[in-house]
């Protein structure tokens, strides 16, 4: 049976562009690093980058030879984000947490093997955090991503580890060894709370909780992030309780039956 070569080639090109943009969503990078990461020839990556720059999807980075996502993606992202029920239900909770803590509050949703930030309220003390609006972190790094991964079935933990080995290390505290990550995920699931202690950025900590829907499926995660002493210090107990309450509130708005979904320990 003859194959539709033009359609097949178009699909391959779309996949290359998607992989390239996904990689740049994690931060600025060179063409060589992109080529290595997505397993494409450098010549092909240079051509794609040139075309994407012309259309405004990619722009030159802060250093020579570096590239980053372009502003044209912002309008597309804004249109996409506006349809998320999670964001609509989460915003009042996020504002309440921000008023209480003064720290940065994040709302993330799962996308493949990443957690993508679809809403962020800026903290008053720390402004240069790794996860920006529209940015992403892998599911093993950070409080919101691990809150998502921990709520998935253990078989999906193993599949994630296998797909992403070796796991990306951000600091010396990032759980990258499979046994270590499994232990962290088990503790997170049992506690109902993810704790990130400098495993994405040195000096920065975060706490996060999962958000589920009426099917018991993970829809996202809510987190608070800031200077380690603030997040894990004397005020952390009250903040944890309010964060847990907020995660429950958003989940209930999405129809979650917390007791039947194993989240009763959130209270």
TrEMBL record:
It comes from the Bacteria. Residues 72-256 form the IclR-ED domain. The keyword DNA-binding applies. SUPFAM superfamilies: GAF domain-like, Winged helix' DNA-binding domain. GO terms for biological process: negative regulation of DNA-templated transcription. Keywords: DNA-binding, Transcription, Transcription regulation. The keyword Hydrolase does not apply. Transmembrane segments: none annotated. Residues 11-71 form the HTH iclR-type domain. One of its GO terms (molecular function) is DNA binding. PANTHER family: HELIX-TURN-HELIX TRANSCRIPTIONAL REGULATOR, ICLR FAMILY, HTH-TYPE TRANSCRIPTIONAL REGULATOR RV1719. This is IclR family transcriptional regulator. It comes from Mycolicibacterium wolinskyi. The lineage of its organism: Bacteria, Bacillati, Actinomycetota, Actinomycetes, Mycobacteriales.
């Amino acid at each position: 049976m003859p194959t539709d070569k033009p359609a097949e080639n178009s699909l391959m090109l779309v996949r290359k562009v998607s992989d390239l943009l996904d990689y740049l969503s994690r931060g600025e990078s060179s063409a060589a690093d992109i080529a290595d990461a997505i397993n494409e020839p450098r010549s092909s990556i240079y051509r794609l980058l040139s075309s994407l720059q012309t259309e405004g999807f990619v722009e030159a980075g802060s250093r020579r030879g570096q590239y980053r996502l372009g502003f044209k993606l912002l309008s597309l992202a804004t249109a996409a984000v506006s349809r998320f029920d999670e964001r609509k239900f989460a915003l009042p909770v996020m504002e309440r947490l921000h008023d209480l803590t003064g720290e940065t509050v994040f709302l993330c949703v799962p996308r493949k093997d990443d957690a993508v930030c679809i809403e962020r309220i800026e903290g008053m003390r720390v402004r240069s955090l790794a996860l920006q609006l529209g940015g992403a972190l892998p599911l093993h790094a950070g409080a919101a991503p691990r809150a998502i991964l921990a709520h998935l079935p253990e078989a999906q933990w193993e599949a994630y580890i296998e797909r992403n080995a070796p796991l990306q290390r951000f600091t010396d505290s990032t759980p990258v060894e499979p046994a270590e990550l499994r232990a962290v995920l088990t503790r997170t699931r049992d506690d109902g709370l993810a704790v990130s202690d400098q495993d994405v950025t040195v000096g920065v900590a975060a706490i996060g909780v999962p958000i589920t829907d009426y099917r018991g499926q993970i829809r996202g995660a809510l987190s608070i992030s800031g200077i380690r002493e603030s997040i894990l210090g004397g005020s952390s107990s009250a903040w944890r309780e309010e964060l847990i309450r907020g995660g429950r509130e958003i989940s209930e708005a999405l129809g979650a039956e917390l007791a039947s979904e194993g989240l009763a320990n959130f209270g």
